[in-house]
């Protein structure tokens, strides 16, 4: 790991394009390289250069910019309550180092931030923005301290909150998107934040209308703090709320229920609000539900007209190959973007939550990102931006690992291999880049290498190669 504190933190230089005929290489390795920069020149032809040392390379990768695929949205992480608590537990200059590490030109240049709409498991307790029963007018709707004191700027005596600080550090626009875990309990069949439960009634009724208006109120309240959202997702892991005894905040929807809620309630509520340009993302759950979920929602014209994209989580990837899920979804619905919205390691019961300096976990991130990018996915969002040494706080002890781990007692934070793996993508492939062809030559020996290529808006080509 790399240790940062109030006085020291490693930085990266802003990307400068190499002169024609040359390239810049950034390398990270288990042995300790961390985005180490070097330069070189291209030779005119292989043959001449190889006869001298009589060695042919095992693999030759050829970029083909005439083959063009999806355009990139970006990379980022989530500012959960837990992430905010951890950042703000550091001395102020160390907080700045941490935020710069993610958002500035001397860091990873993240451009996506996912924000829970009220609480999730990575909160200190369960809450929503209107826990007053049967308040169909949302008269008691209000943001909580978790928002105003940590995420959006409220009282000037408080830390100037994180989203504004991140926005100020970033040289490109940041795209914020919000996701609810649960509605207020009085809207739910379970009358509980947790466990199996859906909205009461059916689409079009007062519960569904009120829940749709809750999204609009959330966007209104954040707008008062000068924060505008790029997108919302219709629900985090809607299938979780269909599981008996689910341990943390959830709200169940089948694909059919999500379709009807969007067509009759959420879609019209957003379209008739001052946030009519906001993108709406469906699913936001494991890709094992594709292509079925997309078919149900997007083959319905009423629902489809309000939807822009499909969100996927990585947790069941090992039993749902991308070729059987994401690829057919893209082929059926090429006009809808697919975005990887959540991933973390260490949350499975058989894993250690936090393993400081674990290179293999960085490999897992890169492998997932490469697999997704090579199959039409437009971006990849990590889960918590920062957690503590335990992998929390998390009110149900569903601890996990994170690219940055904070030790508040020592006033330091650790940048893990996952952090640098993320940087190999986020720093060099900006929003608007387009994936291009990259093929291994016929003579190439069978290779375990994984790779992708993108052409940036400035015309430069980025090739990322993972050697696991």
Automatic annotation (TrEMBL):
What InterPro entries does the record tag this protein with?
GH, GH30_C, Glyco_hydro_30, Glyco_hydro_30_TIM-barrel, Glyco_hydro_b
Q: Does the keyword Acetylation apply?
A: no
Annotated membrane topology is: Peripheral membrane protein
Please state the protein's primary subcellular location: membrane
Give all residue intervals belonging to the Glycosyl hydrolase family 30 TIM-barrel domain.
72-429
All copies of the Glycosyl hydrolase family 30 beta sandwich domain together span 432-468
EC assignment: the record states 3.2.1.45
| Protein name per Swiss-Prot or TrEMBL | Glucosylceramidase
Organism of this sequence: Caloenas nicobarica
- Source taxonomy: Eukaryota, Metazoa, Chordata, Craniata, Vertebrata
């Amino acid at each position: 790991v790399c240790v940062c504190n109030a006085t020291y933190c490693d930085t990266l230089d802003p990307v400068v394009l190499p002169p024609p005929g040359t390239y810049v290489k950034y390398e990270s390795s288990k042995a300790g390289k961390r985005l180490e920069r070097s330069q070189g020149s291209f030779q005119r032809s292989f043959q001449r250069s190889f006869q001298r040392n009589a060695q042919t390379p095992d693999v030759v990768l050829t970029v083909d910019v005439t083959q063009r695929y999806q355009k990139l949205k970006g990379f980022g992480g989530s500012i959960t309550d837990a992430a905010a608590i951890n950042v703000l537990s550091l001395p102020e200059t160390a907080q700045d180092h941490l935020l710069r590490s993610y958002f500035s030109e001397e860091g990873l240049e993240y451009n996506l931030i996912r924000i829970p709409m009220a609480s999730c498991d990575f909160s200190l307790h369960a809450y929503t923005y209107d826990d007053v029963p049967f308040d169909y007018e949302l008269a008691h709707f209000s943001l909580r301290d978790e928002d105003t004191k940590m995420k959006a700027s409220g009282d000037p005596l408080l830390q100037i909150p994180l989203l504004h600080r991140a926005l100020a550090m970033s040289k490109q626009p940041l795209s914020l998107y919000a996701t609810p875990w649960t509605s207020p309990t009085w809207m739910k069949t379970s009358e509980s934040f947790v466990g199996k439960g859906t909205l009461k009634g059916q689409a079009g009724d007062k519960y569904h209308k009120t829940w749709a208006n809750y999204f609009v109120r959330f966007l209104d309240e954040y707008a008062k703090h000068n924060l505008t959202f790029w997108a919302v997702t219709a629900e985090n892991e809607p299938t979780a709320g269909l599981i008996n005894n689910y341990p943390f905040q959830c709200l169940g929807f089948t694909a059919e229920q999500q379709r009807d809620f969007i067509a009759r309630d959420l879609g019209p509520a957003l379209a008739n609000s001052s946030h009519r340009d906001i993108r709406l993302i469906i699913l936001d759950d494991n890709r094992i539900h594709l292509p079925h979920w997309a078919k149900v929602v997007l083959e319905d014209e009423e629902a489809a007209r309000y939807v822009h994209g499909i969100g996927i989580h990585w947790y069941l990837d090992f039993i749902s190959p991308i070729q059987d899920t994401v690829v057919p979804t893209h082929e059926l619905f090429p006009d809808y973007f697919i975005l990887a919205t959540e991933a973390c390691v260490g949350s499975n019961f058989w894993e250690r939550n936090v393993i400081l300096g674990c290179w293999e976990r960085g490999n897992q991130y890169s492998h997932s990102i490469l697999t997704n990018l090579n199959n039409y996915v437009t971006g990849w969002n990590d889960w918590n931006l920062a957690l503590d040494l335990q992998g929390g706080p998390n009110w149900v002890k569903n601890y996990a690992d994170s690219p940055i781990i904070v030790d508040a007692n020592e006033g330091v934070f650790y940048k893990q291999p996952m952090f640098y793996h993320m940087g190999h993508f986020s720093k060099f492939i900006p929003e608007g880049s387009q994936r291009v062809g990259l093929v291994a030559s016929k003579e190439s020996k069978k290779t375990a290498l994984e790779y992708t290529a993108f052409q940036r808006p400035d015309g430069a080509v980025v090739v990322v190669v993972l050697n696991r």
